[in-house]
Design a protein that fits this description.
With about 450 residues, the chain is of the alpha/beta class. Among the domains are: about 150 residues, Rossmann fold, CATH 3.40.50.1000; about 120 residues, 2-Layer Sandwich (Hypothetical Protein, Haloacid Dehalogenase-like Hydrolase, Chain: A, domain 2). About 50% of the residues lie in helices and about 15% in strands. The strands form 2 sheets. It has an 8-stranded mixed beta sheet with strand order 5-4-3-2-1-11-12-13, sandwiched between helices. Strand 3 and strand 4 form a beta hairpin. The longest helix is centred in the C-terminal third of the chain and has 23 residues.
Amino acid sequence: MAIKAVFFDIDGTLLNDRKRVQKSTLQSIKSLKEQGVFVGVATGRGPSFVEPFLENLGLDFAVTYNGQYIFTRNQILYNKQLPKATIYRVIRYASSKRREISLGTSSGLVGSGIIGLGTSRFGQVVSSVVPRKWAKVVERSFKHLIRRFKPQNMDSLVTIMRQPIYQIVLVATEGETARIQEKFPQIHVTRSSPYSADLVSKGQSKIKGIERLGDLFGFELSEVMAFGDSDNDIEMLSGVGVGVAMGNGSATVKERAHYTTASNNNDGISKALSHYGLIHVETDKSFKSSDDNFNKVKDFHHVMDGGTIDTPRLYDSLEAGHRSDFKVEEIVEFLYAASQGNQAVFQESVEALHRAVDKAANKVTSKEHPETPLVGEVDALTDLLYLTYGSFVLMGVDPKPFFDTVHEANMGKVFPDGKAHFDPVTHKILKPDDWEERFAPEPAIKRELDRQIQKSLKRQ
């Protein structure tokens, strides 16, 4: 399963608590872009708030207002207005319940001073330091204090609603969510804050917006990795190929995600991308190759083995034998595929392989070897690598997408605790229970082969 697109929630995910994008995240986005991976945001924020991120970070697209408004740096791809009758009913409901309300236009949220302050940098910082168990008390006290000085003018909202409205934000406790949903069955209620609810059209969501982009740009939900921390991220994280919960996320979000990374203040995005092998994170004690495929495999061994070798050294005969066993198994699988299921042909191929090994052994032992053993090992492995590329050349197959697919499948063998698990008897790497469903490479390999075949036919 190759990841073709990565999406970030903004508050609490792409941004740290100081409302800045961490340096490690900037480097990660650059690395993803260099590999041809689409990068976007999926947020409850509006387009005017998000536009600078697309420009400054070089993002490909944005799903805003929880799927109601989707755009790139060059064009609006999709937008869906809330019906005027629905907006009016919600305004009247908010007025009768004395609830602050804001309307989401293409230029931003308009209406409530409380909501405006809550979504500001100051309000977000205050929210991040207030314990969740105090949330209801703080909300009630804050709302009452603001009303004493500046009550909301609901009549002005009726004027504002004449322009296109894509989302409604209503001050409401988490306990009121079900009641609001029951009152307005034609809308979808979601939350990104303990103090307010986001109201969008029924059937709209972040993941629906991502799915729309996939239809346009050629990727499936199974080929998406998404990051989030709030309740309005749950559907997205549980529905994509890899859903990553931030360490600062809610317990519910972490339960529904496939993996939990570090917090938004502690390089959570880069650590998760490295964990799944999408980027290579350099360390002071480890060298980086100009061959990015090598770096990915090195990351795999770092996770599986707890460390890697950074000074050239010689394999002894026992260790070299184990490494050769792995290669021989793949060669036999290659021969089996070439036999196309004919057992007689396969058996003949295996016997020919035995004869080839005997012939090679005689050839190697019959000549002098002035090179050192280390030079000999490196020379042989390099020839194997070159011959493998040559096999792909003669097949007319671009191996890079398949390498990425197999690499991600191997990284998928890491368990949710972030560690590799080994069979106590054979010491082979174990696979998580859902590995076949989520990471088995064969379906993705077939899709990519079909794509390469169709592309080649168009060139003819």
